Amino acid sequence: xxxxxxxxxxxxxxxxxxxxxxxxxxxxxxxxxxxxxxxxxxxxxxxxxxxxxxxxxxxxxxxxxxxxxxxxxxxxxxxxxxxxxxxxxxxxxxxxxxxxxxxxxxxxxxxxxxxxxxxxxxxxxxxxxxxxxxxxxxxxxxxxxxxxxxxxxxxxxxxxxxxxxxxxxxxxxxxxxxxxxxxxxxxxxxxxxxxxxxxxxxxxxxxxxxxxxxxxxxxxxxxxxxxxxxxxxxxxxxxxxxxxxxxxxxxxxxxxxxxxxxxxxxxxx
Length: 269
Ligand code: FPP
Known about the structure:
Layout lengths: L2 H13 L7 E5 L3 H6 L5 H22 L3 E8 L7 H24 L3 E5 L7 H14 L6 E8 L1 H17 L10 H5 L12 E4 L18 E4 L9 H12 L29
Parallel strand pairs: 1-2, 1-5, 2-4, 3-4, 5-6
The protein binds farnesyl diphosphate.
């Protein structure tokens, strides 16, 4: 990171008067609309969207965000026309190849969540190579959700857990929400604090259904190709103004009373 962007990041962080999101998750929506409104093919929006991926990833790493999860391709996206699906897969490979240097320079560790076995071989191989290349990095974790669906993730977790119960490795009576967490695609990464959605829709679209239970939601009208570093800073600033109670109460100093991570004994709204 250059000295100028280091100073800029420090000044921004000092200007925040509330919590900082350790984990940000983003529903990158509106690529198609962005392109169509300019009379262009939808895939041009996806291509421009990869530049937002680079900009936002670098900015998040520079600011000290611990984890960034991007909804890059849902299980439902397979229903799109063949040309759009194959373009997205080729863009994924292109992005991974092009960004390796940036990932390494910023000590970013790449992970992926979803039914990765659904991806075409060429995309999966490049993904696996990049994950292996960055595995030793100790900076931000960048997770790409690919062929991902929140309900499928829970069904996959339930199936694996049921097998362990049947084999006697887990007692059915001992299962609580932390047990189930351990069977999700990546249980090491803490839950998202801030969930951003671009292009204005007010839905979760099957994204991180388990993990987003207490995430603060931030929806912006800007389409994903328009969402860059300044927009990310705006979302982080809005998050800093939120009061997070985790179903409990706030202390006088504004901090949440009690544990932040809920267990089955302490649920709340
Ligand atoms: C939603 O826009 C976006 C997607 C389905 C794919 C997101 C993909 C990228 C940003 C590029 C590839 C990603 C990586 C990580 C290299 P939409 O097409 O649903 O937009 P619309 O709602 O306006 O139609």
